[in-house]
Design goal:
heterodimer, A: 254 residues, alpha/beta, 6-stranded mixed beta sheet, 4-stranded antiparallel beta sheet, 10 helices, 26% strand, globular, B: 284 residues, mainly alpha, MetI-like fold
Chain lengths: 254, 284
Amino acid sequence: MPLAKVKIKISDFNFYYGQVKVIKGVSVEMLAKNVTSIIGPSGCGKSTLLRCFNRMNDLIPGARAEGRAEIEGVDILGPQVDVVELRKRVGMVFQKPNPFPKSIFDNVAYGLRVNDITDRLIIEKRVEQSLRSAALWDEVKDRLKDNALNLSGGQQQRLCVARALAVEPEILLMDEPASALDPIATARIEELIVELKKHYTIVIVTHNMQQAARISDHTAFLMQGELVEYGKTSDIFTKPRKKLTEDYITGRFG
Amino acid sequence: MKIKQLKEVLGFLALRLCMVLVMAILVVVFWDIVTKGGGAVSWELLTQPPKDGMTKGGIFPAIVGTLLVTLMTALLAVPLGMGCAMYLNEYALDCKFTRFIRMSIRNLSGVPSIVYGLFGVALFVEACNFGTSILSAGCTLGLMTLPLTITASEEALKAVPRSYREGALALGATKWQSIRTNVLPYAVSGMLTGTILGLSRAAGETAPILFTGAAFFLPDLPGSLLSQFMALPYHLYILSTQHHDTALVRPLAYGTALVLLILIFIMNLFAIILRSRLRQMKKE
């Protein structure tokens, strides 16, 4: 097997909300076309870390990053970075399904339209492709004009995946994408993630350790803003090097 | 358990009483105006200018004047108020300075309308040299309405879920794109509702137009934005207190009040329709 390419690399990465340091000296390399999961107890900074990769934290006043963060060797933190361009390359699916109160079609087409793609045929094709990739096409193909808010929670979340895919990102960030869903919808999202990693680099934050074990290739365990352990998921879950990791995954705390 | 239930019943009763009291006052006022003014409302009242020292004829110029000045008010207050609210809510950093600005805007809505009137004289009538005119009065009323418009518009923008903005930005939309396509469509009805309520208040104001453009009596309709005008609230004020025979023109005064009330009611109805549309859109 050829050596997998490093897609995302952060080193000595610190992140602050005002004076509070929430990410402390984290260094990680995430591989292309892999699923990397970030686990850890609530408030450990896993969502914050995830939201650094598409600079979503820029929206929070007083937020500040330090250290290096690169995608394919190119810095993504500096002031010269075109954040809009970055977010096209790095898609995101949020914790709570957040379809826009528009039709199913318009939801998926949204990212295309804001990126100045106006050709109807291209949009239609891309919408269908994206919905197929998100395993939603068969359920909605006859009602693309329906309001997206009428879909079930699981369908809404897959719609959000489709919406993110339509922009053709390279990386897909998922912030606890299944935490608001029932077990069946969760299973579908997980299948989808495994399917998607053929084409995309996926970073997923999850509270659910079984989920991390089931779907991810690599796992990062974060606690109080520090990276406790990072490695192959199979290693982390079967022979963790650190006591803290073992205690966490066996459910002794968290 | 019994005492708890009794407290509950008494509590509801007290609240219901408040509600009934408020409604009763409204009904009495409305009833008074309708019974006394209803007889005076006629085709002539709506279409003719006042005649014979305002003892006969209608209030047509005052209706037109009020509509025109309200339109002028809207032209100033709507774009400025909405733009300001958008800036404050979407772009401005949440720092001490913006909080101070926001507080000042809230406080401005408490300034008495007569103060706005005097300010209007100084700024629009004299400094800008608009004279006493529709333009001056409209601008003065516009300024008076702005705090309400801004506050209501900001609340409407705040009501749009953060996830709409984040979702759009995460797809590579610029901030303006996310606001234009994903925030404004859901906030605009709320923004307009608040604005219309503000305008309907402005339409009924007397003090700000007193020195800035409202005329006691004009035989002709205003010819331009720089003309003086007659207005319903001012006309009502004259008929009830300044006329040489207030008792004689009392029915006309009530008729004027009723027309003003209906005009404002129509504007508020617009606001209600907009609001219900907004609710429906959110439900869909």
